[in-house]
Design a protein that fits this description.
- The complex is a heterodimer of chains A (322) and B (327).
- Chain A is 30% helix and 24% strand.
- With 322 residues, chain A is α/β, with parallel strands linked by helices.
- Chain A starts with a strand and ends in a 9-residue tail after the last strand.
- Chain A has one domain: Rossmann fold (3-Layer(aba) Sandwich).
- Chain B is of the alpha/beta class and 327 residues long.
- Chain B has a single domain, classed as Rossmann fold, CATH 3.40.50.
- Chain B is 33% helix and 23% strand.
- Chain B has an eight-stranded mixed sheet with strand order 6-7-8-3-9-10-12-11, sandwiched between helices. Chain B has a four-stranded antiparallel sheet with strand order 2-1-4-5, covered by helices on one side.
- In chain B, helix 4 packs parallel to helix 7, helix 5 packs across helix 7 and helix 7 runs parallel beside helix 8.
- The longest helix of chain B is centred in the middle third of the chain and has 18 residues.
- Classes of the chains: A alpha/beta (322), B alpha/beta (327).
- At the A-B interface, helix 6, helix 7, helix 8 and helix 9 of A face helix 8, helix 9, helix 10 and helix 11 of B.
Chain lengths: 322, 327
């Protein structure tokens, strides 16, 4: 069963220049990305800044409209949904963002923050909303009296719990987690990651987990998609991608990830140069200027995500593509 | 490598005192550390653990509200606390240099990169403009910046984050310092750029016999880069020792929990060890050991009396009663 399916999802932002805002080229933020998320499972998306992972999240949240491709939810394309259907979609897909200091309104009490999605989306009696709020607070491990306090009275980890409670208010089926622990202290991160795992198990939530911390993503996810310059370069079961990456970029990425223990050192693969601009991505394979295994055909042919060694890899080394 | 430490902190304490003197925040409390030439020390701690104040204390760059109240600070046998501000200016940047977290904030947007890399050379070595420029050029090549001639004429905003961090690194090593303090040098960088930068720092260290001090919240940096590590909690070093000893046989419950709380690549979805509660407010520390309210193994004694430094093994020190009373 598939909850959400992205098919050839594309988002190009037009570049405008000059007096009449003439369109000159485009930022190819997301360029033909396909993935699926099953109920109760986690898809982790990793990649460096500018790879399009946050834009992908925004497309899933319908905060951006795709310029190509489509998203299907419960087997129905979002484009085919009427206003009521879209409303239901927005209720079923919620988000938790990176910075709990920016995502909570400092002038609202925590109870009102968590109740807001309930008030705007459902007609509830006043007492009922209050009951739901205290149930949500209990779910995320905060005391009931938190409802009467303001966000500034909480620490970063507690604020992230409030943001999670708000995301759960409408009983969503998919939660987009965009760097949910990167702003938190090390000792607090584990608390929040554990809470997310518990909530997934108890409520059957699906997660789209976006982070640059590879170990955290590998820990949380069932499947991992590795993005580079708007494209998925490797996609497969989290365990095997982390243990035995195939695409040269994934290999370099995991080799560059900091070890959790001095004995965990992987062989260093240091990439030269930096991620090129998504306005003029390199021809052929977008990774070829930095790739240690580059071949002649990499500069010309675009590799497609082909099934190789039990997972999808977009690389000519594995005979992917035409 | 000589046996005498290049930089030595001896029960160093830095406190912030409020204007009326009523509130005292012990940001750095009785910290003893030593680094030898060619060695890398990691200072880890969460926000508010006092690690940045520690770096600023070593540099003697503290804000007016902060006072070094007691202890000793020695660099190459000299007492840094006895130096006048003018003497400190001769040492800072020349013998002890620092790299800060945010390269955009530590570079001046109005000057070219060339001017900024050449500045410490001109100030400390009184060289002429042209020699300084030559040095700046070779420094940019040393930090592996492509097309250094062109980059010297550019401004910080024209460069990427990774490149700016390299520029800051070039400035820091411009006068061939003997101690380099890096305060969260890679938090704003992407993973592959971070790996490039760490490799660069290690190469520079090898070449110049630098003593490196990493101030970080990231145990991964410690695991990859450091020879020894000091774990800070609420202004104190609660455990210190050689990196492998600390990772394999941590004594302090905080260190243990910290190491177990980070996911390891390759372990499946399991529960992580979480530390309950949150770091204390430095202005109102709990009685006894400051970790005691969050500690899963707290004893009655921990609530009454703060533990002193206990030597667990040679070079391995912990501030914990468990280190003396076998559980």
């Amino acid at each position: 069963m598939i909850l959400l399916e992205a098919h050839e999802l594309t988002k190009h932002f037009p570049l405008r220049r000059g007096l009449f805002s003439k369109v000159e080229g485009a930022v190819r933020a997301v360029d033909g990305v396909s993935f699926t998320i099953e109920p109760g499972r986690t898809l982790g998306v990793v990649g460096e800044s500018g790879c399009g992972k946050s834009t992908t999240a925004k497309l899933v949240l319908k905060l951006e409209e795709p310029t190509g491709g489509e998203i299907r939810f419960d087997g129905r394309s979002l484009q085919s949904l009427d206003a009521g259907g879209l409303r239901r979609y927005r209720k079923s897909v919620q988000a938790v963002f990176q910075d709990p200091f920016a995502s909570l309104n400092p002038r609202m009490r925590v109870g009102a923050i968590i109740a807001e999605p309930l008030v705007t989306n459902e007609t509830l009696a006043k007492g009922e909303a209050k009951k739901r709020v205290s149930r949500l607070l209990e779910l995320v491990g905060l005391p009931e009296r938190s409802a009467d306090l303001f966000p500034h009275e909480f620490s970063g980890g507690q604020r992230q719990r409030i943001a999670i409670a708000r995301a759960l208010a409408l009983s969503p089926r998919l939660v987009v987690l965009d760097e949910p622990v990167s702003a938190l202290d090390v000792s607090i991160r584990a608390q929040i990651l554990n809470l997310l795992v518990d909530l997934q198990r108890d409520l059957g939530l699906a997660y789209l987990f976006i982070a640059h911390d590879l170990a955290a993503v590998a820990h949380m996810s069932h499947a991992i998609a590795v993005m580079y310059l708007g494209k998925i370069v490797e996609y497969g079961p989290a365990k095997s991608v982390a243990a035995d990456p195939k695409h040269p970029y994934t290999q370099a990425l995991f080799a560059a990830a900091l070890p959790a223990h001095p004995d965990d050192q992987r062989e260093e693969i240091i990439l030269t140069g930096e991620v090129p601009s998504p306005i003029n991505p390199p021809a052929g394979c977008r990774f070829h200027p930095r790739c240690p295994h580059v071949m002649d055909r990499c500069a010309q042919d675009v590799p497609t995500l082909g099934l190789a060694v039990g997972r999808e890899v977009a690389c000519h080394l594995y005979g992917g593509g035409p | 490598m000589t046996d005498a430490p290049l930089l030595e902190l001896d029960h160093l304490s830095t406190h912030y005192v409020s204007a009326r003197g009523t509130r005292v925040v012990k940001a750095v409390d009785e910290v003893s550390l030593a680094v030898r030439a060619g060695e890398t020390l990691g200072v880890v701690g969460e926000s508010g653990s006092g690690k940045t104040t520690l770096a600023l204390t070593i540099m003697r760059l503290l804000p007016p509200a902060a006072r070094i109240v007691s202890g000793g600070l020695r660099f190459a046998g000299e007492d840094l606390l006895a130096k006048s501000p003018a003497e400190m200016r001769q040492i800072r940047g020349k013998h002890i240099a620092m790299i800060l977290q945010d390269p955009m904030a530590s570079l001046n947007p109005l000057f070219t990169v060339g001017d900024q890399v050449a500045e410490p050379v001109r100030v400390h070595e009184h060289t002429g403009r042209r020699t300084a420029r030559e040095r700046a050029r070779s420094l940019l090549s040393a930090v592996k910046i492509p097309a250094p001639d062109q980059r010297l004429r550019e401004y910080p905003h024209q460069m990427s984050g990774g490149m700016r961090q390299r520029i800051v690194g070039a400035i820091a090593i411009s006068c061939e310092p003997r101690v380099l303090i890096a305060d969260e040098p890679t938090t704003s960088l992407d993973v592959t750029i971070q790996a490039q930068y760490l490799r660069l720092l290690r190469d520079l260290q090898k070449e110049h016999g630098l003593a490196l001090i990493f101030i970080t919240h990231n145990l991964g940096i410690v695991a990859r880069m450091c020879d020894s590590v000091a774990v800070m909690y609420a202004g104190r070093v609660i455990e210190s020792g050689p990196v492998r000893t600390i990772f394999n046989a941590p004594v302090h419950p905080y260190t243990q929990a910290l190491i177990e709380s980070i996911p390891r690549l390759g372990d499946g979805p399991s529960r992580l060890t979480a530390i309950d509660g949150q770091p204390p407010d430095l202005a109102s520390l709990p009685a006894g050991c400051s970790f005691q309210p969050r500690c899963p193994r707290a004893l009655d004694r921990c609530r009454e009396e703060a533990p002193g430094s206990i030597t667990v093994a040679p070079a391995h020190i912990a501030r914990c009663w468990l280190a003396v009373t076998p559980s």
